[in-house]
Amino acid sequence: MHIHHLALYVNDLEAARRFFMTYLCAISNEGYHNPNTGFRSYFLTFDSGAQLEIMHRPDMDDLPKPRSRTGYAHVAFSLGSRAAVDDLTRQLQKDGYQVVSGPRTTGDGYYESCVVAVEGNLIELTE
Description:
Elements: E1 6-9, H1 13-24, E2 27-28, E3 32-33, E4 40-45, E5 51-56, E6 75-78, H2 82-94, E7 98-105, E8 111-117, E9 121-126
Parallel strand pairs: 1-5, 6-9
Antiparallel strand pairs: 2-4, 3-4, 4-5, 7-8, 8-9
């Protein structure tokens, strides 16, 4: 068994799509639109085969996203090396994204950084 995909609701579907394509080399499908509900989505595929569905509905609630809450905490992307983590973290910070931790080695031995991206959702970058 494996996880088929994760899904993330966003307000700005095109900006979220650009983020994942620009910084994490995602490949996007052409998208889906249901004109009856206004629902739109893209499936983004990463080089490992993992997929993320980004979705939008015009009638969504957009509640505050405190970091300590129940639910999914972050999505982690393995970049393959410490240098790649360092480089992408620097680039994201330069481009205006908030780095909330790292790059650092955690107590359990992971080398990572964590960035607030895509409408307040956390993206973790690991080696």
